[in-house]
Amino acid sequence: MKESLTAGDVVRLLDELAPPALALPNDKIGLQVGSLDKPVSRVWVALEASPDVVAAAVQNDVQLILTHHALLFRPISVLDTRTRRGRAIQQLLAADITVYSAHTNLDVAPGGVNDVIAEKIGLTDVELLDVTYRETLHKLVVYVPVSHLASLRKNIGDAGAGAIGNYSHCTFAAPGTGTFLPGDKTSPFIGTPGVLEQVEEARLETIVPDSRLDHVLAAMLAAHPYEEVAYDLYAVEQPGPAYGIGRVGNLPAGMTLAQFANHIRETFGLRHIRYAGDDDLRVERVAVLGGSGSKWAAKSLAKGAQVLVTADVGHHDAGDAWQDGLAIVDATHAALEQPVCEVLADRLQKMADARTGTPGAVEIVAAPLDVDPFRWT
C-alpha cells in the first residue's frame, strides 16, 4: 500500500477502468496538461476542463482534473491568453494542475458513459450496439513447486488471469518433475549450487487478456519462490472479450415515443428536449450512444431498436433516420454524459482508498459545476 498517490497512480487506476486500448482510432486521450509525477490529494472528475471548471479547481486546490472531453482535442497553434480558453490553460500551468482525458475509451468501457446512460433510462438485457474492439488473449504457462501452487494461482487470478465469460480464476495444473542445476552465484530457493536438483512441480496454465498481461506477470513473479521463473507465453487464436460503442436494451414496459422523450427529459434534468418520429410510435427497444451518435442509426435499426437516444443530431441525419424507420431522441451532449462523472469518481475513490489503505487520503469527487454550453429560455 502507498501512503500517498501521484497523478500517475490515479491515472493508472483510471486506465484500469477505461483502458486506453479501447479508444476509437485517432481519438485524443491521455495527458493534456501538466505532470503525472506530482503527488495529489484532491482530484476532480469533470466532463471537460472548461474555463469555469479550471477557475474553480484553482480556488479549491485541486491538483488533478480527469476529464471525458479532451482539453486539446483540436490542435491549437496560438495560445492567446486574452481568450477564455487561453486564460484557462494559463491558469492550469500557473497552478500546476494536471489534466488527463479518457474519451471514447470511457464510452466503450464496461460501466462507462453508455452503461451509465442505459442504467439511468432503466434498460434491461443490455448489449453492445457496435463492437469496436476485441481483446487479444495470451496463454500463460508457468512451472511452480507444488508447495506454492495455490498461492500463485490465487495471485495471478486476482490480477486478472483466467477470466472466461462470467468465471474468474480459471486455470489448469498438471504434476511433473522439474530439473535445474544452480550456478555458483545463485541463491536457490530449493537445491544447492553445483548440484542437479529434481523438484515436484506443477505446470499451471491459464488465459490472460492483453490489458492485464503486465499486472499478471508482476503478480506471478511476486508470488513465485524461484530466482528465475520458467514460464511461456503463447498467442491464442480464439477471439477475446468484445467491447463496443453504444448500448441497446429493452424498456421494462413499452410506451409511446412522446412518453419516452419526456422520460428522457425528466431523467436527465432537461427543461426541453427534441425528437424525430411519430408521437404514437410504440417504443420497447432502445439504443443509446453518449455524444454525437447519429451515424450509428443503421446499427440501431439492425439491433431492433425503435429509437436512438444520442446528441448533436443534424437536420438531415434525423430526417433520414426517421424515414428509414428509426426515431431519434436528441438530448444535449453534456446532459447525457455528465452522469458518468459521479459514477467514475465513486469508483476511483474506492480504488484509491484500497491502494493507500487510508480512506480519503486522496479525495476524488465529481466537479461541482455544469459545463453544458446550452441554455434554454
From TrEMBL:
One Pfam family from the record: DUF34_NIF3
A molecular function GO annotation: metal ion binding
Record-level GO cellular component terms: cytoplasm
Domain of life per record: Bacteria
Keywords noted in UniProt: Metal-binding
Entry annotated with the keyword Metal-binding: yes
Presence of keyword Transcription: no
Coiled-coil regions listed in the entry: none
InterPro entries associated with the record: DUF34/NIF3, DUF34/NIF3_bac, DUF34/NIF3_sf, N-reg_PII/ATP_PRibTrfase_C
Binding site residues for a divalent metal cation: 68-69, 107, 333, 337
Family: Belongs to the GTP cyclohydrolase I type 2/NIF3 family.
Stored PANTHER family: GTP CYCLOHYDROLASE 1 TYPE 2 HOMOLOG, NGG1 INTERACTING FACTOR 3
Listed name of the protein: GTP cyclohydrolase 1 type 2 homolog
Organism: Alicyclobacillus acidoterrestris (strain ATCC 49025 / DSM 3922 / CIP 106132 / NCIMB 13137 / GD3B)
Source species taxonomy: Bacteria, Bacillati, Bacillota, Bacilli, Bacillales
